[in-house]
Write a structure and sequence with these properties.
alpha/beta; 12 strands; binds adenosine-5'-triphosphate
């Protein structure tokens, strides 16, 4: 089991954000986390990454109790990719990959030949090796996300946590990043990522976890979880979930827009 969360609770001061959250992510699985703004998705990730302390319950990562791991051991198990990432220093892309927390180099060490080879391999694997010598501050948002995925690969972590990894990306980069992530899960990594696009799960996720009011309100196969009833209820919009390509994929359509369009067309006739 890659991540096993049992009875997780967390509060900011007196404000309870997570209550009795329990779920397990098997190895090699890509899990999308859905939920309205402010429901606690980032807070959940920050607990799993030990960036938030003081949580109750238990979190096990690759069979090891999170509380028993050193920072370096944790980094070997889990890599984190934030929503967007900017660097104030003009490191080149290869250096950013080499700075992975557990790759044996760290911020101030000097990389050995095997570290450099591993970093190039990781950049190659996500299709951005051609950017290796470019300054990280001068590549696009989508390219940065791919470089951070390469860094997670070079870090040798078996699990990646991604907080809205495509929120700042255009359509093409969104597809490229999600495809790269999908491929990593096929190769055995476990990935948990939050998103505000419920229908992304149909193409890219093995499971969908839905948080609402600090609790897990659904978890399972995207086709069972991302339903018209659930999406309408948690986001307070009327949607239809439509099936395409012999149900190989489904899309969410806001029905109120369709009703308005129909009313406009009828008024114009
Ligand atoms: N450092 C903090 N101190 C106090 N409250 C916080 C802190 N960080 C987040 N919160 C509150 O905790 C709740 C959960 O926030 P969190 O960022 O986890 O939500 P989220 O589901 O990731 O939201 P979004 O989808 O908007 O990114 C929110 O009500 C937020 O205002």
């Amino acid at each position: 089991m890659s991540i096993d969360v049992k009875g997780l609770g967390f509060s900011y001061g007196r404000r309870d954000v997570l209550r009795d959250v329990s779920f397990s992510i098997p190895d090699g699985m890509l899990v999308n986390v859905l939920g309205p703004n402010g429901v606690g998705k980032s807070t959940l990730f920050r607990c799993i990454l030990c960036l938030n302390t003081g949580w109750t319950g238990s979190i096990t990562v690759n069979g090891r109790d999170l509380r028993s791991l050193s920072v370096r051991e944790r980094a070997r198990e889990i890599a984190y990719i934030p929503q967007s990432h900017s660097s104030v220093y003009d490191y080149n892309v290869l250096d950013v990959v080499l700075m992975s927390a557990s790759g044996g180099v760290g911020m101030f060490g000097s990389p050995k030949k095997r570290h450099v080879e591993r970093a190039w391999e990781a950049l190659e694997r996500v299709g951005v090796a051609h950017l290796g010598h470019r300054p990280y501050t001068r590549i696009s948002g989508g390219e940065k996300q791919l470089v951070l995925i390469a860094r997670a690969i070079a870090q040798d972590a078996r699990t990646i946590v991604m907080d809205e990894p495509t929120s700042a990306l255009d359509y093409g980069n969104t597809v490229r990043v999600l495809s790269a992530v999908r491929q990593l899960a096929r190769e055995g990594m476990s990935i948990v990522q939050s998103t505000h696009q419920p229908d992304q799960a149909f193409l890219y996720a093995d499971r969908t976890l839905v948080l609402n009011e600090g609790r897990v309100c659904a978890y399972g196969d995207p086709k069972d979880v991302v339903t018209k009833e659930l999406v309408s209820a948690i986001y307070h919009v009327d949607v239809e979930v439509c099936s395409l390509y012999g149900d190989k994929v489904r899309v969410c359509v806001p029905v109120s827009e369709l009703d308005r369009k129909q009313a406009r067309e009828e008024a114009e006739r």
